[in-house]
């Protein structure tokens, strides 16, 4: 064994304690550190020939790179839809690396059963029934891709084509209908060989909405003349967290032949709260569902889950045929269910957080985030230089400049906010208007944080 590696092994407890100390210092200062990275990154260093050892690497990281990492785990990072990481989920994530389980198959480990237990808990959390099976994937993009891959196989079943063998070209043109699809849906269609141009946008409800007009959707389905299609419904759109009427869309399946995929990446968490659960009424009728866990579940990045009613088709798409892996019989190993073979135990942080805080704890995070988003919306409405572009329906505040919201002026506002170090928001375009969006999904965010965000926005827009 290399002498430096052997030395690290002999001092492993001390090295882990040192890493713990660095992490503890970072997390202790998280609420007050700059939310966005200040200044340019350092230049690239040459590849080391003789290593510095674990302690040396930790010191070098803390000196060169840690100061430029964003405060995305903190309470005033409102960009994208970024959750933080609850204390229990951080512990689970560290143990994921320590145990280093490969979830490709059972492999003499109980790890796969822990993931199945976690998936079952999440299925219950989101109001899905036992007809839905699931697996962990890396994020919402992967979850949408898996769901649409199963939908592609279903189209083949309807048309008498084995897509997993013959390829997507054997289907001919595929019709994918959606009102306000997330950009990852088009990416998934590209990856799956269906094609970005096959995504057809259906008219939305009037009145500044992002929800699909179900009557227009029915018209679009009728125009297909009985040809099977894919419908991508949205449970929580990116700009304004609008929800399609899932129950009404599902009812159309009585007259039209389509696969219903629901992108509930973060809107699915409305199911946790009695006040908002009606927004996802009908989610259980979906053929496949996407939920992103490193958003509102507040577990570390690299965690999402996908659900489907047709595990048989999922296995047809993703099974790995090799003698040393074994056939996908009974309860299939996870390598037969997702694009990955080797995969880490990314279910463990979610398991830790669900055990630690339960349904009630995670419901409180959702309810508090929604209340704070509405508070920020009310504050923005009272700032002369700003205006809301849509009602605050759940946890995202979409707003712009009150006068001349040109791309240049809105971009300057975004930079000024980021340069303040107080908060971070992301740009968007809503209804043709350049805008900013503040997404509340972090477990740490408080009323005080919201006031600080509003003060920065008011000053930057003055």
UniProtKB/TrEMBL annotation:
Alphabetic keyword roster: Decarboxylase, Lyase, Pyridoxal phosphate
SUPFAM superfamilies cross-referenced by the UniProt entry: PLP-dependent transferases
Cofactor: pyridoxal 5'-phosphate
Keyword Zinc-finger found: no
GO terms, molecular function: aromatic-L-amino-acid decarboxylase activity; pyridoxal phosphate binding
InterPro entries attached to this UniProt entry: Aromatic_deC, PyrdxlP-dep_de-COase, PyrdxlP-dep_Trfase, PyrdxlP-dep_Trfase_major, PyrdxlP-dep_Trfase_small, Pyridoxal-P_BS
Keyword Lyase among UniProt keywords: yes
Segments for region (Disordered): 31-53
N6-(pyridoxal phosphate)lysine: modified positions: 295
GO biological process: carboxylic acid metabolic process
Family as reported in the entry's similarity comment: Belongs to the group II decarboxylase family.
PANTHER family, alphabetized: GROUP II PYRIDOXAL-5-PHOSPHATE DECARBOXYLASE (PTHR11999), MIP05841P (PTHR11999:SF70)
Protein name (record): Amino acid decarboxylase
